[in-house]
Amino acid sequence: MNAKVKTKAKPLTQAMSGADLFIEALKKEEVEVVFGYPGGAVLPLYDALYRNPIRHILARHEQAAIHAAEGYARVSGKPGVVIATSGPGATNLVTGITDAMMDSLPLVVFTGQVATGVIGTDAFQEADVIGITMPITKHNYQVRDLKEMPRIIREAFHIATTGRPGPVLIDIPKDIATTLGEDPAFVTEVNLPGYQPNTAPNVLQVKKLADAVAQAKKPLILAGAGVIHAHASEQLLSFAEEMNIPVVNTLLGLGSFPSDHPLFLGMGGMHGTYTANMAMYEADLLINIGARFDDRLTGNLQHFAPEATVAHIDIDPAEIGKNVDTHIPIVADAKEALEKLLETDLVAPDANEWRIQLKESQKEFPLWHSEEEEGISPQRLTKMIHDITNGEAIVTTDVGQHQMWTAQYYGFNRPNRWVTSGGLGTMGFGFPAAIGAQIAHPEDTVVAIAGDAGFQMTLQELGLVAELNLPVKIIIYNNQALGMVRQWQEAFYEERYSQSLIPCQPDFVKLAQAYGIKGYSVTTEEEAESVLNETLNSREPVLIDCRIKPKEKVCPMIAPGKGLHEMIGVKP
Amino acid sequence: MKRTVTVTVLNQSGVLNRITGLFTKRQFNIESITVGPTETEGISKMTVIVHVEDERVAEQVLKQLNKQVDVLKVTDITDQAVVSRELALIKVLTTPQTRAEINVIIEPFRATIIDVARDSVTIQVVGNFEKIEAMIELLRPYGIKELSRTGQTALTRGSQKQVTDLKQYSILK
């Protein structure tokens, strides 16, 4: 026997600073990586991080740190953790926090704050972050007493990741981080009487839905990101297949249902497929699973699903009936609701005619784009990226034309591979989000598809990519314009291209090279194909500047204020 | 339409800001809001009178309030039997001639004079919204110098029988 004396467990009564407590709490939450940027008010936190490391990703701007955390959260399902300093550090997070709130991404955001004694005196780098972020967080806290820190951090992670996920912010004054406290009591249970998200469906409503399914002649499933958050893709597939009901995805729901499935009608909404939108227009039973009837999906509400009995499964009761009158409300986790539904005696609807009608419509009105040979067609480029990555890549985008082309043509077959800024529509989101996604899945191919304008909003993160040698593939759809703004100006403002054309651009290849990253510029599809083939499955970062046809538009479209049935640009 | 909503909240710092901020963000129009402690320590109650367009918005108000972590309970008591009261302080200009008149006017309202100066009196009145409105109208001709109202606070009645607070309808109109 070894005579070694058993080492004593660390006594709990050891004095710990607030910053140490913070690190300890993050470890208890099994946080593997934090995204952040240091500054005066968070010096104590960063000092504790130095002594007691958790992997920290140093973005070059706080906005990129939080978008990276969003990308990480989106593909991993784990909460993204962000640290920023007080004042400007915190205010630089505002766009990312709002973005995460709109798209229901779990984040726990820590901001430094000036010392408690000077809060409210307009001290150096002071901002009322609690006030600023109140309407854009699921909840926020300021730590006023060291003793509360473990409880607050536990609650924050609980709130961020349960129910409808969202961002939670914790503001930590500098003196709280340096104060020594005795005997930190780490709580494991949360006691939040005002926060009790319901996940189990009401059995009677599920029965009602089953009855409606049995009677429907034109049933349709609308699947949103709630399916992905609830890990309910398998159940969705079983339900759709067993009942033989066609499926439409929302933008954020792409990947929740295989795009190559015969029941899949494509994305619905403003730039959705004609068949998906007409299916929503004509359906007599619309089963919304985890989507929030966003205005970009519904178009003019008066013409949305006018014939349909609407069933809505949502974890957030406030979404039910918010925009669309709902006949069968089911407040529940999508997975639990679908499981319960699959357990009931389901009778498949008699909808053969409906499916034939939709199949014919798909044949007659497929997505189309200009077949002109000259220049790079962004749609063909997207299909090329799909083919070279076998449709298996994690793809991120900003907002705008390139986002819509990717949504229309990439063809997602699995959940958690599609990272885009849906609700807020944030330019500059995609590239940093790709960095976070790559950190979550270091072995996978991550493609950041960006517009030339959006990329210039967060391109400083080339520094981070180079530093970590992250094999992110940046593909710029370069039309030297704010493409979607230009398209709207062409369609609705008599071609007055006010401030939407950006002829002066950096040499993106040299820019990449300046950071030590390989850069390519391609002007033809042959060039694009050869460069993509060579680089997309490589293990190093690369930037490819693709000169796409500058005037290419996103089709088809529901013009603003119009109904689902009033799509334009449906055929060449 | 006007709805009376009571909101039971954890008395955390910033909770009033959270609630009013929510109303601003969602464009719910607050007519009055009162807040104060309840019988349980650490728990406060707000009474909010809110103007909404239709049932859907009314439902949204309740659901959005319920989503707040610091909110324990939300009740729309508009259609219930309630007792609601508001307090108003009204400073009215007086002359030696009008002072007696004013006394006579306020007496049926069970209002009291709580401050007297050479050229004015301050009257305190407690009652529901309509009663206070009625008294203010009667005092207006004398010259109201200052007016301060608390906004309504309300409780549901102990027994929910038909009570006179509810509107009476008759086929004879």
From TrEMBL, chain A:
EC number: 2.2.1.6
Span of domain Thiamine pyrophosphate enzyme N-terminal TPP-binding: 16-130
InterPro entries referenced in this protein's UniProt entry, alphabetically: Acetolactate_synth_lsu (IPR012846), AHAS_TPP (IPR039368), DHS-like_NAD/FAD-binding_dom (IPR029035), THDP-binding (IPR029061), Thiamin_PyroP_enz_cen_dom (IPR012000), Thiamin_PyroP_enz_TPP-bd_dom (IPR012001), TPP-bd_CS (IPR000399), TPP_enz (IPR045229)
Thiamine pyrophosphate enzyme central domain mapped to chain residues: 206-341
Pathway participation: Amino-acid biosynthesis; L-valine biosynthesis; L-valine from pyruvate: step 1/4; Amino-acid biosynthesis; L-isoleucine biosynthesis; L-isoleucine from 2-oxobutanoate: step 1/4
UniProt KW keywords: Amino-acid biosynthesis, Branched-chain amino acid biosynthesis, FAD, Flavoprotein, Magnesium, Metal-binding, Thiamine pyrophosphate, Transferase
Record domain Thiamine pyrophosphate enzyme TPP-binding: where: 398-546
Cofactor: thiamine diphosphate; Mg(2+)
Claim: Lipid metabolism is one of the keywords in the record: no
GO terms of biological process kind: isoleucine biosynthetic process; L-valine biosynthetic process
Gene Ontology CC annotations of this record: acetolactate synthase complex
Matching PROSITE patterns: TPP_ENZYMES (PS00187)
Broad class of enzyme this protein falls into: transferase
Cofactor: how bound: Binds 1 thiamine pyrophosphate per subunit.
Origin superkingdom: Bacteria
Alphabetized PANTHER family for the sequence: ACETOLACTATE SYNTHASE CATALYTIC SUBUNIT, MITOCHONDRIAL (PTHR18968:SF13), THIAMINE PYROPHOSPHATE ENZYMES (PTHR18968)
Record family assignment: Belongs to the TPP enzyme family.
Protein name as annotated: Acetolactate synthase
TrEMBL record, chain B:
SUPFAM superfamilies in the record: ACT-like (SSF55021)
GO biological process: isoleucine biosynthetic process; L-valine biosynthetic process
Enzyme Commission number(s): 2.2.1.6
Record flagged with keyword Oxidoreductase: no
GO cellular component labels: cytosol
PROSITE patterns: ACT
Reactions the enzyme catalyzes: 2 pyruvate + H(+) = (2S)-2-acetolactate + CO2
Keyword NADP: no
A UniProt-annotated Pfam family: ALS_ss_C
Record's subunit section: Dimer of large and small chains.
Role according to the record: Catalyzes the conversion of 2 pyruvate molecules into acetolactate in the first common step of the biosynthetic pathway of the branched-amino acids such as leucine, isoleucine, and valine.
Family, per entry: Belongs to the acetolactate synthase small subunit family.
UniProt name for this protein: Acetolactate synthase small subunit
Species for this entry: Pseudobacillus wudalianchiensis
Lineage summary: Bacteria, Bacillati, Bacillota, Bacilli, Bacillales
